[in-house]
Amino acid sequence: MVWDVKCIRFIYKITLQYYGDVIMATKNISFTAPELLKMEIEASSETGYYDNKSEFLRDATRTLLAARKDLRIAIACELYKKEKISLGRAVEVAGVNYEEMKKILAERHIKRKSGSETLEEMKKRAKDMGA
Description:
Elements: H1 5-24, H2 35-44, H3 53-67, H4 69-81, H5 87-94, H6 98-107, H7 119-128
């Protein structure tokens, strides 16, 4: 399949609009893994399925999150509680609608933000988040 340059630019533009904040905020992470898992991760790029270990780990994480709605909801709640994401983003992360997310937050005794921040409060929050 030959990809037209316009098609590639269009896909890039749409992806950037949807995932822009995530793409731009890429950071390295490290973790401890058993030796066998480490070897499997390192071999992932040698199989030809992935270009590098990072691509494999991103795909593995996305696959896990796609299969585990309970985990997506827990992550969305935790990020919302810590004020790292908005209610709208929590809805996207959890994969539920607004009403369901509001119900989930209430069941977990997570107070909803009013959204009535002053300009100074928003500037402070942006500074605290590293923006």
